Records
---
Amino acid sequence: MISAYTGKQVRQAEEPLLAAGLGDVLMQRAAHGLANAVVREFKSRGLRTYGAGVAVLTGKGNNGGDGLYAAAFLAARGMRTTAILTAGSAHPQALAAFEQAGGRVLYLSDAASGALVSEAVRADVVIDAVLGTGAKGGLRGSAADLVTAIADARAQARAEGFVVACDLPSGVDADTGAVSTPALAADLTVTFGAAKTGLLVDPGADYAGRVDVVPIGIEEHLDQPGLRRLEDADVARLLPHPARRAHKYSRGVLGVVAGSADYPGAAVLACRGALAAGVGMVRYLGPPEVADLVRRSCPEMVCSTGAVADNRVQAWLVGSGMGPDDHDQLQRARDAVTSGLPVVADAGALPALPDVMAPNVVLTPHAGELAALLKRLGGEEDRAAVEAGTLAAVRRAAALTGATVLLKGATTLVAAPAGDVFSQADGTPWLATAGSGDVLAGIIGALLAQEDSDVGRFREMGVEPEQRWAAVAALGAALHGKAGRAASDACSGGPIAAGGIADAIPETWGKVSMLSNAGVRKRNSHTLPLR
Ligand SMILES: NC(=O)C1=CN([C@@H]2O[C@H](COP(=O)(O)OP(=O)(O)OC[C@H]3O[C@@H](n4cnc5c(N)ncnc54)[C@H](OP(=O)(O)O)[C@@H]3O)[C@@H](O)[C@H]2O)[C@@H](O)CC1
Ligand SMILES: [K+]
């Protein structure tokens, strides 16, 4: 499990060590980790480090100090290092160490700006060490102009060098992931002590690239994480496995209320997602013409009639492919949500549900649907506002509705009403295809139907029982993302259709389970040994 923390939490964890006079030690560890990560990146790209060009954009605070010390390490390895001081001054000891290691120092001024831009475009690696967790707002003034010019010039020249962010890309808010432009999009962010929340949510994640956590010795002082991400080992541990004497009912029955005359295919895709995700039986409830298509497409399906209360299931999936005029289906969706059983509520059901629900109801809006939900509950947010502040929006929706809320996107966020948040980014952009969300709802529905009262495996992972619905939804998002990626990989990274995601689920499930049995190394920053 990756645990992420706000900038404030990390700074608080640093305090006891700073008070003990270990500030410089922490900075040296951070800088050493950053330099090593840069060298590894060169190697993974098949590039030589000796003689390679390094440009470090530095601010006046400790983030700039990290960058300068790291550049001093790189200079000692024979790299040509240039520091561009954006604030007129820099961390004095780090600057002295950098100069002593043979680094070249250039100062930002209007006159020098053009030459500095060329320097950064020519470099094999640009290290962004202007602002870190001490930033108040984004880049300003001449530093902002410089970063804009560098980003433009790199794009125009199709610069081959890569960008590494020191702790976080300057302009990305460490806590919220909100981005104040300009910001330099990094290929890799090397972050210290623990992942920062803002790196694992959109839009911050768009600028962070890959995130590498360098332990610096503050880990034991960190408290509850603000956000978590399931890794392969966690996924494997949470995936249900049938007992030896299981039968189809004991493995869970999912009821599906989905599809309409306009969108019958959504019901089929939701059922295909569910059937592939380990559930004992899937029971469809809906208009006869949709039921016919469901039966013909998936012979494993059982189609029923009547009301929600007449059908015995362990969980419900409601809403995929339903419109505002599907009155009977919407009534079934409402009945499912008030039945007390776990429910995944998607698409067309969202506007028709009560304002207040329970944590075992998982809502799965995209950004536009989440904005509409928040507006209905008295908020001001439009789609753009949700996209600019995904973490705040999903948290707010969970708090207001009392339900678990999953916001679909390149990074999928799941918020429990009590505050836990999970962030999953297992997929590929090819997953943005019609019907993909129906398959996701099917997977989550199937997992909810298999969820029993044994909450021990959640507790072992530090997830409180009442928050487990968010973990189950995150598990569904992880499985969906991995299956989509596997389907695309199977055609050499080509495009996929939603049915292909469902088809890839069983093998993805099996492979992740095998990985866990082989003992996947936990990469949580908490558990990494310190050297
Ligand atoms: N604590 C430790 O021991 C360790 C810390 N570590 C590292 O330190 C980083 C935090 O360092 P930090 O607190 O010095 O702040 P930092 O992010 O460098 O920048 C803020 C500086 O710039 C200024 N400034 C603020 N906003 C601005 C803006 N919008 N535009 C322009 N300027 C702005 C502000 O000055 P002010 O305006 O307040 O006078 C301040 O001087 C952290 O991310 C990690 O990399 C690691 O080495 C581990 C050990
Ligand atoms: K930075």
Note: Residues 519-531 have pLDDT under 50 and may be disordered.
---
Amino acid sequence: MTTVLEKGNISIHTENIFPIIKKWLYSDHEIFLRELVSNAVDAIQKLKMVSYSGELAGDLGEPEVVITIDKAQKTLAVSDTGIGMTADEVKQYINQVAFSSAESFVEKYKAAGDQQIIGHFGLGFYSSFMVAQRVDIDTLSYQPNAEPVHWSCDGSTEFELSASTKSDRGTTVTLFLQEEEQEYLEPHRIRQLIKTYCDFLPVPIKLEVKEAASDAAPPTEPATEATAETPTESAALEIKAPEQINRQKAPWKESPSALSSEDYMEFYRYLYPFQEEPLLWVHLNTDYPFVVNGILYFPKLKPDVDTTKGQIKLFCNQVFVSDNCEEVIPKFLLPLRGVIDSVDIPLNVSRSFLQNDRTVRRIADYIAKKVGDRLKELYRDNRDEYVRCWQDLGTFVKFGSINDDKFKKQVEDILIYRTTAKLGEVSGEKSEVPKVEVQSADGDAWQDASPASPSSASSDSPPYTTLKEYLERNKDRHPNRVFYCTDEVAQTTYVELHKQQGLEVLFMDSFIDSHFVSFLEREHPDVKFSRVDADLDDTLIDKDKPADIVDPTTNQTRSDRIKELFQKALNKPKLTIRTEALKSSDANGVPPAMVLLPEHLRRLQEMTALMQQQAVQFPEEHTLLVNTSHPLIQNLVSLSQGAIIQNEGQSPSAELANLICHHVYDLALMAQKGFDAEGMQAFVERSNAVLTRLTDRAAS
Ligand SMILES: Nc1ncnc2c1ncn2[C@@H]1O[C@H](COP(=O)(O)OP(=O)(O)OP(=O)(O)O)[C@@H](O)[C@H]1O
């Protein structure tokens, strides 16, 4: 019979502590395992410290934590090979420290009210009573001549301390599970919990399952004679050899120089299986003025990415805290993935408190700065790669620039845009390569560095430019004016027209770009941004073309005639018809007509659509620019010659001219919007009618 050394009462100030804890953490009972395994790993780390200081007489042994499921006993035990406790330490740490930390946990919970708490951390050892009706501790201290101690408590405030039979150093905490908590006897449940919370703890965590032979899964191979023997009491228990169930290695805790690219990739695949490979990563590694370690990955962005939901995992000392650390990292970095580990992020606080915490804000700034540094480093060292990733990186960088002033300043020199300019070939051009400040490899020293190659990356990749370079290159032709395109396919006619006249167009075609153009305008109030289809620059128009008088009696010019022709044919009061002779080396190279929508009108339209959460409608007020230099338009005038199209009694030629006016307008409109069913039907019918008439004429 074991001798009871002491029976006592645990000092308790908060009445009914267990009902309170149970109520608050009702959905989070599972955290008990995280707390017990963390304590076990702490005990092993403490033993190491003792050993370093030379206080440990014997061997350190193999550090490991073993979780044992005993199905027959309905117990779950967590054993470690750590520092252990003497009877006095059990009294002090378990009866006093553990209980007072549980009490202070409850106090903090009360203070936070109904707000969501980030981690439920710090409840510690007592969290085991959320799932156990009785908890035993058997422990043997590392200290010379220490006696093993047994502690037992049934969840009341009374405990019992006696001698234990434990013969090896360390601590075993055994939970006698409550009836409704039997799920923790299932190996897959324990595996899942360890994978979630303790996967990266730096000690092997093993799982051992003891079950009655009859409960065990049938053997895959026929029983051998030995196993088929009459079961003795011990043989009736099937004990599977402990298997390690945590990954153990936490790459973010290692030095970046110790990891290869493949190590980073492998870790990404481990965290986010079946996902596309990331573009690049940033290894966070600082001890001062706060401790932050982590690896952040830039994934490929999908246009429908939800930038409000984070996927970065938050850890504290390698123990998983939360899948979402929206309060800890700047909003614009939420699409990043990976791990952040910091002991300096307060965990038993509400999320709103966290947002206003000074250290957390400084950590967020630090992370943003490291991300900016990484991008600058890539820009400097591997411009081709930077350009290759830009489609995805650009979204982060632009979003970050809009949202974070410090980040904006950091990356403004590395914001690039795809351009129509043939860089390197532009006459006598030697674009100035912006200097980029990059953190040196060995610490916080900063140096100016020029990118390895000029803006145009390698010859076969599309050319990219910075805004500064663009403005500089075009300062004589169109000072402080930027032409841009948002849809390369739809706006191709306009882009070609600009290109032909040597006007450089930037492609601003990612989903963030409409906001980004407004942002750039605020940043550069003296620069005007016009989409290629907003208006035509004077350089595109042949102003010297003499006005052709076609009717000496009325002094009507060819342009007046064309305008009248279209006005009558289309009969759209809100449509402005403008006639211009467009410059071109090849008359067929520019379109006969274009639809223009003034920049301010288009943006107003987009804004309204956004606010009303509707699709953008193309406004009826727009301009049809008819190119009087185009042969088609000139033929059209001849066709209608003599008889301006009348609504009634039209001649066959006038009718054909009418149809062609509609057709030219529809073709021009196509670059701006698609047809609805009715419009499409009319377009097809008219196309056929025009072709029929033309073939009739040709055949006759
Ligand atoms: N497996 C163990 N081995 C040795 N000592 C332990 C073990 N588990 C708990 N202890 C001791 O009991 C104390 C109380 O544990 P408890 O988990 O309640 O709080 P904590 O670990 O100190 O703090 P927290 O869990 O809030 O981080 C620990 O500080 C430690 O000294």
Note: The pocket of adenosine-5'-triphosphate is lined by residues 35, 39-40, 43, 80, 82-83, 85, 93-94, 97-98, 101, 122, 124-125, 171 (CB under 6 Å).
---
Amino acid sequence: MSLVVKDLSIRVGSQHLVRGVSLSIDRGDVVALLGPSGSGKSLTAASLSGSLPGSAMVRGHLEVDGQATPLGDRTRAGIAAIRQDSLTSLHPLVRIDRQLVPVLLRSGEASTRAGALARAELMLEEVGFAAPTQVLRSFPMELSGGQRQRICIVQALACRASYLIADEPTTALDGVSQQLVLSAFRTAAEAGAGILLITHDVVAASSLCSRAVILDAGSVVDQGSFSHLASRAAHPIARSLTWAAHQTTTQDKHTAA
Ligand SMILES: Nc1ncnc2c1ncn2[C@@H]1O[C@H](COP(=O)(O)OP(=O)(O)OP(=O)(O)O)[C@@H](O)[C@H]1O
């Protein structure tokens, strides 16, 4: 079971911003999408989650668990997304409980409102909220950027989607929250979700992901395991992006030994 995108191409006006990108994510696997700023990671993510801007022209083939799926389809079943900008993802005039409870009921995580509230509290605790009851009663504007980001992460995980597209989910978070979120992703993958993690944090990616796809100027320049990318990568960007992570992982292993 996997999500496969082939020959993805995105244009806005006369600009060809993503060119022939192909990648796959297996259920239960976490794949990193790395690359310099402006290389096309967010556009690629948006095309998979059906949230490309209306001005974008998209071409290519998407298959979800063997089922061909239109790339422009905005109501895509089975794929949840975490976007970079958490303020636009949450309804500003709706309290957090009313943004989480319906998702948990729809996904079958809970069958009653009381059960969904209890589950929401637990999931909020798992991403570092010390007072989840209070958070559930808040409006998004009463929370910090990092808190809103973690609520979007809980909302996406609450969908229990087969695939999760996470665009820089931990950028606004402190170190402890980052670790908790990565641990929640690991748990989701162990439960069978396929995750695409877009990040500039190569060390975090190498600790969580089995392999990475590297984009530069809208094209895939390399992909494979982190040790492959660090040692034999054909493209200098792939080498520089993965070298530090590989060094850290290797040092950690030596320290542990
Ligand atoms: N709606 C849009 N209209 C026109 N150009 C866009 C649009 N969205 C993105 N771009 C351009 O497409 C290119 C890729 O953008 P994208 O946001 O995918 O990069 P990214 O790799 O996610 O960067 P970052 O790491 O900084 O988030 C950039 O040159 C950007 O300016």
Note: Residues 12, 17, 35, 37-43, 53, 55 surround adenosine-5'-triphosphate (CB under 6 Å).
